[in-house]
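Need residues for this backbone.
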């Protein structure tokens, strides 16, 4: 896939997060409170969350589909 921002080739990979409490969540604004937020990825048995995506090294854009 080509980058939607600069048009260069993107590379496949994963974003990894470490969270035993709820996994990866979406928030519209930065906040230290995580209750009630929309969950995007649940942690595995070791507490890791993996989200598959593409990144552009040129313009530092990441595209993640959940």
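Answer:
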């Amino acid at each position: 896939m080509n980058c939607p921002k600069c048009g260069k080739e993107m590379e496949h990979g994963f974003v990894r997060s470490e969270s035993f409490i709820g996994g990866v969540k979406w928030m519209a604004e930065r906040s230290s409170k995580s209750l009630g937020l929309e969950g995007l990825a649940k942690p595995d048995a070791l507490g890791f969350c993996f989200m598959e995506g593409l990144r552009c090294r040129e313009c530092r854009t990441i595209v993640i589909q959940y």
